[in-house]
Design a protein that fits this description.
This protein has helices at 4-22, 26-48, 70-101, 106-113. The chain contains 4 helices and no strands. With 114 residues, it is mainly α.
Length: 114
Amino acid sequence: MSIFPYLVVVWVAACGLYGIVTSRHLVHQIISLIVLQSSTYVLFMAIGFRTAGVAPYFSDIPRDTLTVDPVVQALALTDVVVEAAVTALLLAFAVQAKKRFGSVDPQELRQLRD
């Protein structure tokens, strides 16, 4: 078992968090959130990976064959769908913020609340 995929997860998540915290543009924050969520794909694949494992199609392989975990593959696919929906919703919010308030700077939008 290698620690490299987990280091990649931490690095990608840190890059996404840095972008979210330091950005002054809503679209950049959304892209940073996408990067942060992409680290979960690598995490799922690292958890489900087995050396010399085959794809989990059980109809044509012997019963004692080592396979990769199909549950984490399904979770990763579900994560992709959720990310697409969240991204679409957040981008729609950013477009509406630009139309209504004329800005996509989170600091300026926070001042409108007061």
